[in-house]
Automatic annotation (TrEMBL), chain A:
Transmembrane region(s): none
Localization annotation: Periplasm
Protein's UniProt name: ABC transporter substrate-binding protein
Entry keyword rRNA processing: no
Domain Solute-binding protein family span(s) in chain numbering: 80-412
Species name: Acetobacter thailandicus
SUPFAM superfamilies in the record: Periplasmic binding protein-like II (SSF53850)
Family: Belongs to the bacterial solute-binding protein 5 family.
Protein keywords: Signal
Cleavable signal peptide: 1-29
Cytoplasm keyword on record: no
Automatic annotation (TrEMBL), chain B:
Domain ABC transmembrane type-1: 78-267
Family: Belongs to the binding-protein-dependent transport system permease family.
Lineage: Bacteria, Pseudomonadati, Pseudomonadota, Alphaproteobacteria, Acetobacterales
Protein name as it appears in the record: ABC transporter permease
Species this chain originates from: Acetobacter thailandicus
PROSITE patterns, A to Z: ABC_TM1
Membrane topology field: Multi-pass membrane protein
From TrEMBL, chain C:
Gene3D superfamilies: MetI-like
InterPro entries membership: BPD_transp_1_N, MetI-like, MetI-like_sf
Keywords: Cell membrane, Membrane, Transmembrane, Transmembrane helix, Transport
Main localisation: membrane
Cell compartments where the protein resides: Cell membrane
Pfam families: BPD_transp_1, BPD_transp_1_N
Domain ABC transmembrane type-1 as annotated: residue spans: 98-303
Name the record gives this protein: ABC transporter permease
Membrane-spanning residues: 104-125, 146-164, 184-202, 242-264, 284-302
Top-rank taxon: Bacteria
Lineage: Bacteria, Pseudomonadati, Pseudomonadota, Alphaproteobacteria, Acetobacterales
Similarity field: Belongs to the binding-protein-dependent transport system permease family.
């Protein structure tokens, strides 16, 4: 229905797509898009709604973050916090009072103005009991919000919180207008450089340039995000000219098709990706450090990183990926050594043939590495049963009921060592020493001290192996050779396109 | 019976078809079965240092992305996939056949009931049945067999009901009933033997269809979990190599075609054979 | 006339009961499945209060039977409900997806008939000749090819090597009829070829059966030209069994698209349904399955009636699902 309404408006751009579909040579396809000054971007996950303040789905953030919606603070490609809707701020010495000054003249796409009242409304809405905000804890720590004037916001916190400014840059904390907040799920209205145009659910979202944007306007007049659940289909779409860019290309086996193709440029970017074999630390067997160490020795993680076919994939030794400034390379703590693994298992009194279940979520890297990991564990005498679960079942069984032995999953949140301090988290790591370290880290304000504590926590995890840390894979960005200005790194789920353009 | 009335081919051609069917099945199943037995004892290992090797004397079609011999792995997968389909169809045949017989024998109510079941069963999308079963019990061989069987039961019910009704209306059945035979004996001696050819032909047609459906389900990830090799799952995981190692995509596909073709030709040949017997007797 | 109205009412009434039964079946299946739709929406970091709030909003805090009765009540008022994951009316989602799926199924059906019927007829007329043997061989081969594999191979060849057709995705009708048609062509071929083979096979035997009947000889003896005999006498008589097979294929085209949609990255009703099962989007699953079931059983009932009309003598003598 929705897309019938926009039928006529859509014409002009779709003509470009027609040309590129009909084009025999990918080059002419690119030219067709270039003349039209639009871009089609491939995305792996289709968003269920378009409101990042009410749903944690990654697809929402890729489409809307910094394109449609903006927060008080933003991040750059390197994950550094930058001014966005707030042009400046100051923090009181006790870390309890934040004083923001808003950018002047900011307007939402529906014409309503951004004032302190809008900010107050946004955060109070996120904090409310009926709020579905995925990161409610950011706002629950807010004591009061006051508006000394229209462009000044004072926020006071209940307890000091070192990461408050960086959390305000997340998609969950974008500023919404009271006039449109209720409809953002279907028709998002923000302050960003692009305006929402249309959405074919499951298929694509189209945005157009916001010509009334306050600062430098976007270069592209139109952006289409297309969603691909099948890696093969994604690769095909890029090859045959339906797409101009694919920021997190999902089919590493097909990279050779692009590597020597002058029409495309391939770049490797960083993202907080930690692929782990998560262990249920509540399980009697896996509660023993000896057994967990044996598993770490038993798996040829270097081999697995190579099999991933992703250039730049590497073994990690702790719950931290290399793009993080606090990263310490601990990948050598338990090198591949099946003999040692057998010895440790024997020492721990584990009988050969002991059964372990490996629950796999429906994600390619999990399904692919699952088979390999099972084979390695069988080599040291364990008997592994693979359970392929689909997403809701995985969430319920592994995450909800903790009814699992092992699972493969990637944690993609930045700075998430805190999950090891939560003893109720799904893998159930309950270690007083680590919890003390984390508490100290939370309290610390001095950057050097924080870094030292972070390294200590990483080391603790690397030796204790509550989970087996498998690999980090950089994201592979493929774009047509002429496209400039897209993010290579992805410090958080996002694909900001205001600086993107077609070069000569 | 319409299944038999389709037989309008010269007998020489039917015999050639039968031969073809046997040969194409044998091509896959003989080495497949041998390898299957061998790999029950020596499971396929994973050898990451010898992945995606080119064809050689040691590995006739090279190795797959996890370093297994492509040909051996695919053949064993073929045996597994066919096995699953056959077991599912045996289940469906037993359940559907007896339900149809019962419906033909019993009164109007049973007929309406089975008619409803048949309609619902045919209308229910098989992928959804499989997806529901898999989410309910987890992906596994048993669930896959069950999902396939459910999908094919209605067809068997309908066929066996039609066949049994036709036979039950014959004079010799009435005669048999008048004699001292119990209903059970009547069925075993007169009804079942006369239904068998039709059901058997349907069975062979359905095994071929079930094999196609099985590869589809396991392609979507609704089949048995690894390490059990299955044709659909290997196709799903090899498809990304269509351009750099086309063998990986072509071989499993060709093996499916050979199997389905073989079964269909065998089925057609059998049907012609029965038709000839019917004519001569 | 009256009896036919009565007959129709009875036919429709029986189907309605069947549909309600089907809906109860699906509803219980979805309730039995592990996993909670609210949990799926809120993801891994959901807090218990948030989850409870969403449960209440979605009406999941009520007993299962109450949920079902409420749903059924709304359905009879013409309210199809709202998708859990997309928060829009199910009907809107469906109508978006049908713009792709209906033409795709239609195109596949037309292709299957346009290929299968003439080829089958040709094989029948030339039966026993080498052309017949080649055709029958081709039919056997086509029947044996898995549609998704055919899809992969067709894409690799026509889209990525020759660049004649798009490799997947749907251009949308707003981009004009030609690009939209082009993007549906390969998937329609992948869907249609195996069905065309089945159809050709049945057409061949149906036409042969008619050709062997005495009246064909009579017609020829009366000096009618061969094309006239075929068109006027043979074709109408061989239609009913072909229609019967076709009516069994339509459900397969409707529900069998899921795998082909996956291969071609088409977001049709098949993809919608599969995603909905995987996200526990109960309202969408309910309506989709119900619509498919309804379409199939009504289509079957109607085609049986048409068949009887065409050929009152023929009894419903069909081969299970032998397609």
């Amino acid at each position: 229905m929705f897309y019938k309404k926009s039928f006529y408006k859509k014409r002009s751009f779709q003509a470009g797509v027609v040309l590129s579909l009909a084009a025999v040579l990918p080059v002419s396809a690119a030219l067709a898009s270039a003349q039209n000054n639009s871009i089609a971007v491939g995305v792996n996950v289709s968003p269920p709604t378009l409101d990042p303040t009410a749903n944690p789905a990654e697809g929402i953030r890729i489409v809307t973050y910094a394109n449609i919606f903006e927060g008080l603070t933003g991040v750059d490609e390197h994950g550094t916090v930058q001014p966005l809707l707030a042009k400046s701020w100051s923090v009181s010495p006790d870390g309890l009072l934040y004083h923001f000054t808003l950018q002047p003249g900011v307007r939402f796409h529906d014409g309503s103005a951004l004032t302190c009242a809008t900010v107050k409304y946004t955060f109070e809405r996120a904090k409310a009991p009926e709020s579905l905000n995925p990161q409610k804890h950011i706002f629950e720590n807010i004591k009061t919000i006051s508006c000394p004037s229209d462009d000044v916001v004072d926020i006071s916190l209940d307890a000091p919180h070192g990461s408050f400014l960086s959390e305000l840059s997340w998609g969950d904390a974008v500023i919404v207008s009271p006039a449109s907040a209720a409809g953002n799920g279907q028709h998002p209205v923000g302050t960003g450089p692009f305006v929402f145009k249309s959405w074919k659910r499951g298929d694509s979202v189209t945005l157009t340039r916001n010509d009334d944007y306050r600062g430098e306007k976007a270069h592209l007049s139109q952006v289409v995000f297309r969603f691909y659940s099948d890696p093969m289909a994604a690769a095909n779409a890029l090859l045959d000219g339906q797409l101009d860019a694919y920021p997190s290309f999902p089919a590493p086996e097909m990279l050779i098709r692009f590597a020597h193709n002058p029409d495309f440029v391939m770049r490797s970017g960083l993202a907080p990706f930690k692929g782990i074999l998560a262990l249920n630390n509540r399980q009697k067997l896996l509660a023993q450090p000896l057994v967990r160490q044996a598993l770490a020795y038993a798996i040829d993680r270097r081999g697995i990183a190579e099999v991933s076919d992703v250039p730049g994939a590497r073994v990690i030794g702790s719950h931290m990926s290399p793009e993080n400034p606090d990263f310490t390379d601990l990948s050598g703590v338990y090198p591949y050594n099946p003999e040692k693994a057998k010895e440790l298992l024997k020492q721990a009194g584990v009988e050969p043939g002991t059964r372990l279940r490996l629950a796999l979520p429906p994600i390619d890297y999990a399904r692919n590495t699952g088979e390999v990991i099972a084979a390695y564990l069988e080599q040291v005498g364990l008997n592994v049963t693979i359970q392929q679960l689909e997403w809701p079942a995985w969430l319920a069984q592994v995450f909800g009921h903790h009814d699992f032995d092992m699972t493969i999953i990637a944690h993609t949140e930045p700075d998430d060592l805190n999950i090891y301090a939560r003893k109720n988290y799904y893998f159930g790591y309950n270690n007083a020493e680590f919890q003390a370290l984390y508490a100290a880290y939370e309290k610390a304000a001095d950057p050097a001290e924080r870094h030292a504590l972070s390294v200590k926590m990483q080391e603790k995890l690397a030796h204790d192996v509550p989970n087996i840390y498998l690999f980090f894979t950089p994201r592979t960005n493929i774009t047509r050779a002429q496209i400039k200005g897209m993010w290579n790194n992805q410090p958080l789920p996002a694909c900001p396109l205001s600086a993107a353009s077609w070069g000569p | 019976m319409s299944a038999l009335s389709l037989a309008r081919r010269p007998w020489g051609l039917s015999r050639a078809g039968l031969l073809w069917g046997v040969v194409s099945l044998a091509c896959v199943l003989l080495p497949g079965a041998a390898l299957w037995v061998y790999h029950q004892v020596h499971p396929f290992g994973i050898d990451l240092h010898h992945r995606l090797l080119a064809p050689s004397w040691q590995h006739w079609l090279g190795t797959d992305p996890l370093g297994r011999d492509t040909l051996a792995y695919t053949l064993v997968a073929a045996v597994n996939s066919l096995g699953i389909s056959v077991v599912a169809m045996v289940l469906a045949l037993c359940a559907g056949g007896s339900a149809g017989l019962l419906a033909a024998e019993k009164g109007r109510r049973t007929k309406i009931l089975t008619g409803g079941v048949v309609e619902l069963g045919i209308a229910f999308p098989p992928v959804i049945t499989a997806a529901l079963l898999v989410t309910l019990y987890g992906a596994g061989m048993g669930e896959e067999v069950f999902a396939l069987a459910i999908f094919f039961i209605p067809g068997f019910i309908r066929l066996s009901q039609q066949a049994a009704s036709a036979i039950l209306a014959q004079d010799y059945i009435a005669a048999a009933r008048l004699s001292a035979l119990t209903p059970w004996q009547t069925h075993m001696r007169h009804v079942l033997p006369n239904m068998a050819p039709g059901l058997l032909v349907q069975f062979s047609v359905n095994v071929a269809l079930a094999l196609l459906a099985e590869t589809g389900l396991s392609y979507l990830g609704l089949g048995a979990p690894p390490p059990l090799p299955e044709l659909g799952r290997i196709l799903a995981s090899y498809q990304v190599h269509l351009f750099d190692h086309p063998v990986l995509v072509v071989v499993p596909g060709v093996i499916v075609v050979l199997l389905v073709l073989g079964i269909n030709m065998l089925g057609d040949g059998l049907r012609d054979l029965f038709a000839r017997q019917e004519k001569t007797s | 006339m009256l009896s036919s109205v009565k007959g129709f009412l009875r036919f429709a009434g029986g189907r309605l009961v069947l549909l309600v039964l089907a809906s109860a079946l699906i509803f219980s299946c979805m309730a039995l499945l592990p996993g909670d739709p609210a949990e799926v929406i809120l993801g891994v970091d959901a807090q218990p209060e948030t989850l409870a709030a969403l449960h209440h909003k979605m009406g999941l805090d009520q007993p299962f039977a109450v949920q079902y009765v409420q749903w059924l009540g709304r359905l009879f008022q013409g309210n199809f409900g709202e998708s859990y994951s997309y928060n829009v009316p199910v009907w809107q989602l469906l109508s978006e997806r049908l713009q792709l799926s209906a033409p795709l199924a239609g195109l596949a059906l037309v292709l299957a008939v346009a290929l299968g019927v003439p080829l089958g007829g040709l094989a029948a007329i030339k039966r026993g000749s080498s052309a017949d043997i080649v055709l029958m061989g081709g039919i056997q081969l086509t029947k044996a090819v898995p549609d998704f594999w055919l899809g992969m191979v067709l894409t690799g060849f026509f889209a990525l090597t020759l660049h004649w057709l798009p490799a997947g995705g749907f251009a949308g009708w707003e981009s004009g009829p030609w690009p939209a048609f082009k993007s549906l062509l390969l998937p329609a071929v992948a869907l249609a070829l195996p069905q065309a083979a089945v159809l050709a096979r049945y057409t061949r035997s149906a036409v042969i059966a008619v050709l062997e009947e005495p009246f064909v000889l009579t017609a020829r003896a009366h000096g009618l030209s061969e094309p006239a005999v075929l068109l006027r006498h043979v074709l109408p008589r061989s239609l009913p069994p072909v229609l019967a097979v076709l009516s069994l294929q339509i459900p397969l085209l409707l529900s069998g698209t899921i795998i082909v949609e996956n291969v071609f990255n088409l977001k049709g009703t098949g993809a919608l349904l599969l995603d909905a099962v995987n996200q526990r989007d109960v309202p969408v699953v309910q309506i989709c399955v119900l619509l498919i079931v309804a379409l199939v059983i009504f289509e079957k009932g109607l085609s049986e009636r048409v068949e009887n009309r065409l050929n009152p003598r023929a009894h419903s003598d069909k081969e299970g699902q032998g397609v």
